[in-house]
């Protein structure tokens, strides 16, 4: 077995290959992920939002950050430096000579492989005279020529060359290491060991440990695990939580504690500024609460800053920075609190033994999210979300003449009345208010109630899983303006004609609905009989007026239709039976009715097949929706006092307002740009009867845009399971015969023994 030799790259040529690959593996992904996005695109996006969101705090902060930030420039400079190093190394590698070449005696002698032995000897003689050392030639080249000549003329040397690729036979295997030789030099051994120890024994363990420590402290939504446990404790302890206590629990989160979060700061000036804010807030903050952690300094400071935000109070510059940090964390913390409340509710429904959080507690979390984003207290008017609206301006809106208390009331006003009511605003401010109001969301809800995985999806039985499919359509308020302004602009004649057409359409729809109405409670036999007896009148007969009609427009009585069927059947019978006249026999009528019933059954089978195809398509659509990952970027929220750009998100759930309980868990709709379809599932009540539920849609950012839609649920008795399976039943006679046969066999065996 040949030996092995390891050697380092003394010249450093192969080390450049390793270094080029290493730098490329770092520079290429870093450029993709860290290269700053086009600043011009961000400037254009902010410019397009300026008309509506120009007065928002988050917009001004984002604009200032994009103009003053030097981080993108530093990132670009570092990445360009890395690319310059990579290009230099690639050029260095491309200029290196390839040292290893496969040994080929034909190339050494400069001959073709088809050359004869005479030509080989002749060429060797010429080259040996040229490169012989005694005649001043190159000794190394002469040795190569001699080795090549032997490999081509000597049979043993030729066989060795063909087997091992070298006329000298097998040699030692060499492994080159793409590192320079000075790394293993004894003079540099201490420095190399120091670098290796620092990299693999200090830096790498610290990085991995820091990542692991952070990962185990945070949940999937980047909320501290301790905060989640704190919320669960107080939600369990206080099922019916009012808004005041909810604010105390929220601000007790460990995200605001400097010991758990380095972003939270306790300043020396807090001992002066925080007590001053407490005096200004008055009785709305409970300072005497001694229950931990509500009495801790970080919790008290966060609560004061949050209440000051809701009251729209001015604070100092240092406290303003801390206030932005607190307010920015509130929506995510409230979402975590809602999740905790839903988990406790599911545990209470499945296990029992403790009281689940009340519906008011979960809805207060949603309301507090709206309040923190808009910087408004719960009792304040939602009109204060608009720019240039102050408390003293509301008296013009809530006067007896206009009675505008909500955003919807402001939208429904005529333009002349709206301008007259908002006369305290100038023309420029009025246009800005209308621009913001036009951009606010207008959501329409459509609900569909069904029971999937059941033969009759519209029949809700006790204990079945009910699926409520809610289709949400998001539009702007300006579209509502357009519809309301176009409607009264019709002339009188056109309006009268439109009214007549609408009445006519309504009449047609009524007749159509009455004709298509089917009674579910009737038996199938009666329904088939009714279909057989009904027959549509021919247009010619209606024109002639041969048939009398009732007031409702239908043919009087069913006898006429039956008589016509008998006449048609007798005509068919006369054509088929030549010698029997025009008489119709009962058997022929039965055959005709059987044909009609078969056609109806085929039609019913086709309808079932269409329903099955529609169900399959809906299932495939849901599977595709599960596989797709949609972006959570919807529409920026208009907020005058929120310090960060926020997207429009919604909560959708079903409640029982009578019992104040959750029927379905709240679904956080984060991808509603234009249209979104959401499925809410819940078990039907175990008792039959009629139930009144409510489908609730709540915004997590706007006040006054929540919607509640009634949902009626009619629960029927569940179908009884068929316990008798004829194919499994064993006749009683067989069971009785078996013991008789066995007795006979035993008796016969006893007789044989006696005979023996």
TrEMBL record:
SMART domains: DnaJ, Sec63. The chain crosses the membrane at residues 15-35, 70-91, 190-213. The gene is SEC63. Residues 104-165 form the J domain. It holds the Pfam family Sec63. This is Translocation protein SEC63 homolog. It comes from the Eukaryota. Residues 519-537 have a biased composition (Basic residues). Keywords: Chaperone, Coiled coil, Endoplasmic reticulum, Membrane, Phosphoprotein, Protein transport, Repeat, Transmembrane, Transmembrane helix, Transport. It comes from Denticeps clupeoides (denticle herring). Residues 497-612, 722-756 are annotated as: Disordered. GO terms for biological process: nervous system development; post-translational protein targeting to endoplasmic reticulum membrane; SRP-dependent cotranslational protein targeting to membrane.
């Amino acid at each position: 077995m040949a030996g092995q030799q390891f050697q380092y790259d003394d010249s450093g040529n192969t080390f450049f290959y390793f270094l080029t690959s290493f730098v490329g593996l770092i520079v290429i992904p870093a450029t993709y992920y860290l290269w700053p996005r086009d600043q011009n695109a961000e400037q254009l996006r902010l410019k397009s939002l300026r008309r509506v969101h120009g007065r928002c705090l988050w917009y001004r902060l984002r604009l200032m950050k994009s103009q003053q930030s030097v981080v993108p420039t530093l990132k670009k400079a570092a990445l360009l430096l890395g690319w310059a190093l990579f290009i230099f190394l690639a050029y260095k590698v491309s200029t290196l000579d390839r040292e290893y070449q496969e040994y080929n005696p034909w190339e050494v002698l400069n001959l073709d492989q088809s050359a004869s032995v005479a030509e080989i000897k002749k060429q060797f003689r010429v080259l040996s005279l040229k490169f012989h050392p005694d005649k001043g030639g190159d000794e190394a080249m002469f040795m190569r020529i001699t080795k090549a000549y032997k490999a081509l003329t000597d049979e043993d040397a030729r066989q060795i060359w063909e087997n091992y690729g070298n006329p000298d036979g097998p040699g030692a295997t060499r492994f080159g290491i793409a590192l320079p030789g000075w790394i293993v030099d004894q003079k540099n051994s201490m420095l190399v060991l120091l670098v290796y120890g620092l990299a693999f024994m200090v830096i790498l363990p610290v990085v991995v440990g820091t990542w692991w420590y952070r990962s185990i402290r945070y949940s999937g939504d980047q909320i501290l695990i301790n905060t989640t446990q704190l919320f669960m404790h107080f939600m369990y302890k206080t099922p019916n939580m009012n808004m005041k206590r909810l604010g105390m629990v929220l601000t007790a989160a460990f995200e605001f504690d400097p010991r758990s979060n380095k972003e939270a700061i306790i300043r020396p000036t807090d001992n002066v500024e925080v007590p001053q804010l407490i005096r200004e807030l008055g009785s709305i903050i409970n300072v005497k609460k001694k229950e931990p952690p509500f009495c801790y300094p970080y919790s008290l400071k966060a609560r004061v800053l949050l209440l000051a935000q809701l009251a729209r109070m001015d604070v100092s510059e240092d406290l303003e920075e801390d206030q932005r940090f607190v307010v920015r964390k509130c929506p995510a913390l409230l979402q975590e609190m809602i999740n905790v409340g839903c988990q406790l509710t599911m545990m209470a429904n499945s296990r029992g033994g403790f009281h689940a959080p009340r519906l008011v507690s979960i809805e207060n979390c949603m309301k507090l999210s709206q309040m923190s984003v808009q910087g408004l207290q719960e009792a304040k008017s939602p009109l204060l979300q608009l720019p240039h609206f102050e408390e003293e301006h509301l008296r013009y809106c809530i006067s007896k003449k206009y009675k505008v208390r909500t955003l919807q009331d402001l939208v429904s006003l005529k333009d002349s009345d709206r301008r007259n009511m908002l006369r305290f605003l100038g023309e420029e401010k009025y246009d800005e208010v209308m621009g913001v109001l036009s951009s606010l969301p207008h959501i329409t809800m459509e609900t569909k109630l069904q029971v999937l995985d059941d033969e009759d999806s519209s029949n809700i039985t006790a204990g079945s899983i009910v699926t409520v499919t809610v289709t949400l359509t998001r539009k702007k308020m300006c579209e509502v303006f357009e519809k309301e302004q176009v409607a009264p602009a019709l002339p009188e004649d056109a309006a009268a004609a439109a009214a007549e057409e609408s009445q006519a359409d309504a009449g047609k729809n009524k007749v159509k609905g009455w004709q298509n109405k089917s009674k579910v409670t009737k038996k199938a036999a009666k329904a088939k009989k009714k279909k057989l007896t009904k027959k549509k009148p021919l247009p010619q007969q209606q024109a002639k007026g041969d048939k009398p009609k009732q007031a409702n427009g239908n043919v009087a009585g069913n006898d006429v239709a039956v008589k016509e069927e008998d006449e048609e059947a007798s005509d068919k019978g006369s054509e088929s039976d030549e010698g029997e006249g025009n008489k119709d026999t009962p058997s022929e009528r039965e055959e005709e009715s059987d044909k009609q019933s078969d056609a109806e059954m085929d039609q019913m089978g086709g309808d079932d097949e269409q329903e099955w195809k529609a169900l399959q398509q809906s299932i495939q659509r849901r599977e595709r929706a599960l596989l797709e990952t949609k972006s959570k970027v919807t529409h920026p929220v208009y907020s005058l006092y929120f310090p960060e750009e926020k997207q429009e998100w919604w909560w959708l759930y079903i409640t029982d307002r009578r019992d104040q309980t959750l029927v379905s868990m709240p679904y956080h709709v984060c991808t509603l740009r234009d249209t979104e379809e959401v499925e809410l599932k819940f078990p039907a009540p175990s008792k039959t009867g009629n139930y009144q539920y409510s489908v609730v849609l709540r915004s997590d950012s706007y006040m006054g845009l929540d919607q509640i839609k009634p949902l009626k649920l009619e629960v029927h008795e569940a179908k009884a399971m068929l316990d008798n399976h004829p194919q499994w039943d064993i006749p009683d006679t067989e069971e009785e015969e078996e013991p008789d046969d066995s007795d006979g066999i035993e008796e016969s065996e006893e007789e044989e023994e006696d005979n023996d």
